[in-house]
Structures are given as C-alpha cells and as structure tokens.
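Annex B. Sample input.
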Amino acid sequence: MRVVFFGTPSFAVPTLSALLASSHQVVGVVTQPDKPRGRGQRLSDAPVKALAVERGLVVLQPERLRREHFSTDFTALGADLGVVAAYGKLLPEWLIDAPRFGMINVHASLLPTYRGAAPVHRAVIDGAGETGVTIMRVVKALDAGPMMARVVRGIGPDETSDVVERDLASIGAALLVKVVDDLEGGRAIEIPQNDADSTYAPRLTKEEGLLDFSLAAQAIHNRIRGLRPWPTAYTFLKGRRLVFHHARVSDRSAAGAAPGTCTVAGAQGITIACGDGRTIDVLQVQPEGRRSMSARDYLAGHGALVGQRFG
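Annex B, continued. Sample output.
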C-alpha cells in the first residue's frame, strides 16, 4: 500500500516508525506548520517532521487543507491510504475520500468514549480504570467512524497521563499496521459506533490546571496526574505559583483543617487537606521560575509550611 501519514507530536512517532518498518510504502508525511517551541520560542521541527526529514520522506506542511490549496500536492503522492495519528486538524471531506482506501485513524481511547483532542488526559482526570486504542475509519463527524480494531489497557491508580499516552502510542502503532495489512488483504471488519454511548474529551486549557482543594482528595489527585505533561496542575502559596507534578492520596485525615491547608510537611511530602476530610501528599513540585524538585528539597528552602494555606 502507498500510505500518506498525517501526524505531528511524539504520540504519532511510533506509528510512523511502524509503517516505515512494514511492507507498506510511506510516500509522504503531512504535518502541522512549524511553530515556536521551548523557552526561547525558536522555530523547530515537531517530532513527526524530525523523523520524516531524517528518513528522507516527502514532507508537506499546509496552512490550509482546502481543495484549492492542497489537492495538487496531495494527489501527486498517489496514496492508496491515509493514516492519521494526532495530526491536530480536522480533515475536510474531499481529503478523506481522496485515497482509494480512504483514511484510518489511531485514536487513544476505547471509542465511542472520549472522542476529541484529549482522550488520555480526560480519562485519567475522570479516574477511569482503563483506556485503550481504537483504529477507526475517518469520517466527517469527529471520531465517529466505524471501528476496525481495539486494544484495552488498564490505568494504574497513580499513573500519569504522559506515561499512559506513551504506552498507548506503542500499542496503537502495532495495531495500526495489522489493520493496514487486513485492508490490503480484504480481511478488515468495520463495526459502527453506538453514538448514544459517546463522550467528549475537549482540548485542555491552561485554566484547568488551577487546583480546587474543596474537591475530594481522589479528584484532586486525578487532576494532578491527568494534566501531565501540559498544562500541569498548580496552586498558589503566598501569591507565588507552585506546580504539582506528582502526588498521592494520603491515609491521613484532614483532622478538621480547612481545604488547602498544609497539615504535615516532611519526608512523606507536603500533606494538604481536601474537601472530603481526606488529604493528599504532594511529592514533586516546581516553584515559579525554577526547576522541578522533590517536595523534600522544596521544604528545605521554604521553612515551616504547616498551617499555611494553598490556593
């Protein structure tokens, strides 16, 4: 099969690598235009583009996917199939229908749940016990196409979304190649989704990172681990922003302390009262303008925190 690959971030790299190692031919890569990255905001290649350039592939970075802007370049690739993995833009109908086998997508959820841009993060924030990867046919409606294969993966109680997503990227890559083989061999089976069971996983925003300690300890813990690596969960102490990278639900009671109050600070971390009378132990933090560090290292430079209020 002559395959055109659509993808941009690191999640998509294992799928492109698996296709390059398969019996199929990657005839081109479509990825988002270059954007400023890092502290210096310099233009640099996104992970998919970096791999494509390294392997000498044709790279297309259209600003727009309208037929009049992109059809000539895309048609010249002679694609049998389009494969999409975290490309970052909705595909127009003309493009979906252009390859003779259409387009298929690697989606990091067990569809029809968590359709949308942030399926892994939303699953972790919601405290879901499992997630997975679905290979589906791309249709005009968002993540609503027939399913061609699924693999289930559990989510550990303290796992962060970046770890889960990295694992799903590898699982999805192997599953995708199998589906492409089945399409070529006429063995692919397509199962319609039940739209009534669908849920939506909207794109994350920076504002969602601000922690609300009136919530239950488990909900706060889920938000901390679900917002990694971006936008990260944060709070304020004495007017200074403090990011929480890792935490756990503590077995200590809040003992009547107001939500957001530090009740214990020491080797176990920074223990904070939550709205349900339970507490969380914060294990790794990042003060404003500084590197990430253990809670113990943070405490060494900030004196006694017991009784102080976060929020």
